[in-house]
Amino acid sequence: MKKVIGVYRNQQMHWVGDGFPVKNLFSYDRLGQAISPFLLMDYAAPYHFDPTTVQHGVGSHPHRGFETVTLAYQGEVSHQDSGGGGGTIQAGDVQWMTAGAGVVHEEFHSPDFAKNGGLFEMVQLWVNLPAKDKMTAPRYQALSAGEIPRIEMQEGAGHLRIIAGEFGGHHGPAQTFSPLNVWDGVLNAEYETTLQIPIGHTTLLVLLQGELVVNGHQRVLDSSIVMFARDGDAAIQLQAYQDSQFLLLTGEPLHEPIQGYGPFVMNTKAEIVQAFEDFNQEKFGEIAVTTA
Questions:
Q1: Quick one: DSSP state of residue 222?
Q2: Average pLDDT value for the chain
Q3: CA distances, 34 to each of 85, 202, 275 (Å)
Q4: What is the C-alpha separation between 192 and 125, in angstroms, rounded?
Q5: Cystine design at 57: which of 108, 153, 200, 291 (Cβ 3.0–4.6 Å)?
């Protein structure tokens, strides 16, 4: 089985804007090259919002040099960006935004969700771009639940959704700039499964809810990540003590310098300075004003 090299859990919640109560499960500023090509993950665990007429979320802000991936489990988020991308994601949908050379975007609870209220649960993942692609044109991929392959495990053990990459001959719809997998899974209590991982990939198991035992001995609780060695065996065994919701992330490490500050992730300090200058000179564009 693939060797476990670290387990990290975070139960501390903080607010992003006034619409996203999140736990930061991993970040490049703490783990650096060990998690490349992944940079950061925030988990908005189930949180109840009352009906309101107030707009909740995060207002206009910039990004450069990476991609944001938002998975909706409960609730709805509406997005707009200066690259022309936009739309509303609902439960099961995924939004994959490539900031590239620079984009300004905003994310708010959808009008329908705000009006009705309810449980809100989301994940946002940041994926780094290779140096050669950091200044690519912005791109927006809206991935509906219906176009994401869902593989049912035997005997009703659970399922695996292939958002990016490939598993068992099923290919995820997300287009990526480097080889990586994003698998969204559920493993029901008292069941187990073994997953095959590409050798040499960075591998992160993210347990959002439930309780798992990994490789027969490593107990993992909710809001945790498990890091695995890149070399050696390619198999990971999961046993569920409770109904468990998880993400499995794998990717070829980029082996490039990581220099980040706030909303920008580049390779050098000079590129970060340039990003701020370009943003202040309004080179990232503007979000189009829509009228009813």
A1: S
A2: 96
A3: 32, 7, 25
A4: 26
A5: 108
Contact residues for 211 (Cβ-Cβ < 8 A; gap 6+): 219, 220, 221, 222, 240, 241, 242, 244
Contact by Cβ (8 Å): 232, 201: no
Pairwise CA distance, residues 267 & 208, whole Å: 30
SS3 275: helix
CA 205 to the chain's CA centroid: 12
Three-state DSSP state, 265? strand
By three-state DSSP, how is residue 278 classified? Answer: helix
| Identity of residue 146 | G
Write the pLDDT tens digit of every residue in 36-52. 999 999 999 999 999 99
Give the span between the Cα atoms of 134 and 98, in whole angstroms: 9
Using CA atoms, how far apart are residues 126 and 41, in angstroms rounded to an integer? 6
Three-class DSSP labels, 160-184:
EEEEECEECCEECCCCCCCCEEEEE
> What global pTM score does this model have?
0.96
Contact criterion met (CB below 8 Å) for 211 and 196: no
Distance, in Å, from the CA atom of 230 to the CA atom of 252, rounded to the nearest integer, reads 9
The H-or-E segment that residue 45 falls in is strand 38-49
- Cα-Cα-Cα-Cα torsion 167, 172, 176, 180, nearest 10 degrees, comes to -20
In whole angstroms, give the CA distance from residue 201 to residue 203: 6
The answer to whether the CB of 108 falls within 8 A of the CB of 58 is yes
The alpha carbon torsion through 254, 203, 162, 65 (nearest 10 deg) reads -30
pLDDT tens for 150-164 read 999 999 999 999 999
- Contact status, residue 8 vs residue 34, Cβ threshold 8 Å: no
With CA atoms as reference, report the closest residue to 92 among 174, 157, 33, 147. 147
